[in-house]
Specification:
mainly alpha, 2 domains, 56% helix
Length: 154
């Protein structure tokens, strides 16, 4: 097994803070688990840190969780190790606003175009593009909006 790359060395204030966190028990289980990992991995108390396998058995977490927590503590500090990294919002902006949704629903409830018995998702998508609401829109986006509105074309 390779040597540990990241060594946890807590100062007295951090150790006290973690112990206080564990005694109150008012935090999330994940945060408390990370605090336990850091306390057991602490090498500053006369080099008496637990081995990763011992921590794994004592706390019942995976080795990768222990390694990840230790790495985050060393590179980003105690707060980041306890709370985890903040995730960026990678979601795309919504295509439909209230006005476009309303127009789509009105269109779906209207008479089907000539030559068709009823509206299909693809016909609705084409019509929304034709009406210049979008430069392009997929039938799946249309389906999701109609499903959200509990509207069934069948």
């Amino acid at each position: 097994m390779p040597a540990k790359r990241y060594h946890v060395e807590l100062d007295e204030e951090e150790r006290t803070s973690l112990k206080r966190l564990l005694t109150t028990g008012k935090e999330s289980t994940l945060k408390l688990t990370r605090a336990r990992i850091l306390l057991k991995a602490d090498t500053s108390k006369l080099g008496s840190a637990y081995d990763d396998k011992q921590i794994k058995e004592a706390i019942e977490v995976s080795l990768s969780t222990i390694e990840r927590t230790r790495k985050t503590f060393v590179l980003e500090g105690l707060e980041a190790a306890l709370n985890g990294k903040k995730r960026r919002d990678l979601s795309k902006p919504r295509k439909f606003d209230g006005e476009k949704e309303a127009h789509l629903i009105a269109l779906a409830c209207s008479e089907a175009p000539e030559g068709h018995a009823r509206w299909t998702l693809r016909l609705l998508a084409e019509k929304m593009v034709e009406l210049k609401h979008f430069s392009s829109i997929s039938h799946e986006s249309i389906r999701q909006v109609l499903k959200k509105m509990n509207l069934d074309l069948g």
